[in-house]
Amino acid sequence: MLKLTPILLAIAYGFLMYQFSAWRTKRMLDARSRPLDEPQVVALARRMAAALDLPEIRVQVFEIDPINGLAAPDGRIFITRGFLRKFKAGEVTAEELASVIAHELGHVALGHSRRRMIDFTGQNAVFMVLGAVLNRFIPFFGIWLANLLTSALAARLSRRDEHEADAYASALLVKAGIGTEPQKSMFRKLGVWAAARGAEMPAWLMSHPKIEERIRLIEAREARWVQP
Fold first, then answer.
1. Most buried residue, 7, 83, 123, 135, by most Cβ within 10 Å?
2. Euclidean distance between CA atoms 173 and 176, whole angstroms
3. Are the beta carbons of 174 and 225 closer than 8 angstroms?
4. Where is the chain membrane-spanning (predicted)?
């Protein structure tokens, strides 16, 4: 039992850290968000809600500049102010924003927040064990290597969640009569904006799949759906 104590402590620490992060995120979102009131986007959200037999899909605007959408641990969906500025400037369509909402709704519907909590606590335990073992054989560099390996694991798990949310969004967009073209064009634009920001990190450390891969998988799903 004593041998397992460090691992159990690492799991408990990871769980508490995740809960604290979720609590801090909720407070920040509560303080810096308001309901989305763009009529075109709200109308599309209503179409998606009807496709899911839901009374509504509530979307909030997170008052920050970076371009992003997010699903909070408590299930709420947010679009950033930066994204809305792109919409108002005519650089993003209402349908493309709807595809972002559909993707974040996928994270909620598929329980990714709960899964991330489990993944996070597990990764923390893996890091502690790997760090202790590797540090015996590679002093000073063991902790660095353990961190690199657990970061790669976390990125891989995150990419899995992104692919699942993409598939959910594609199915919802088709069911709501919006189609997947806005989803694909939104990814292309995100790729252009990311390229303009600078160099890309190694693929195995990326928390999101490559744009080309995401579009290819959307088109592969479409091909299966239209087969007689």
1. 83
2. 5
3. yes
4. 6-23, 125-146
What is the enclosing helix (H) or strand (E) of 35?
strand 33-35
Predicted structure pTM score: 0.79
Give the residue among 174, 172, 180, 183 at the shortest CA–CA distance from 53: 172
Give Rg (Cα) of the chain. 20
Q: Tell me how many domains the chain contains.
A: 1
b or e along 143-157 (b: 16 or more beta carbons within 10 Å of the residue's beta carbon)?
beebeebbeebbbeb
**Residue indicated by tokens 């009529």:** 39
Indicate the DSSP class of residue 202. Answer: P
> Residue 193 above 80 pLDDT?
yes
Q: Give the list of residues 6+ apart from residue 122 with CB closer than 8 angstroms, or none.
A: 11, 14
Strand order in the sheet with 33-35: 33-35, 59-62, 77-80, 69-71
Range of the domain at 162: 2-225
Token pair of 217 as six digits: 């998988």
User: Which amino acid is residue 141, in one-letter code?
Assistant: F
Give tens-digit pLDDT for 154-185: 777 888 999 999 999 999 999 999 999 999 99
Give 78-125 pLDDT, tens digit per residue: 999 999 999 999 999 999 999 999 999 999 999 887 766 655 555 555
Q: 176 is written with which tokens?
A: 């709501």
Looking at residue 18, its amino acid is: Y
Assess whether pLDDT exceeds 50 at residue 2. Answer: no
Backbone dihedral region of 176: left (phi > 0), alpha (psi from -120 to 50 degrees) or beta? alpha
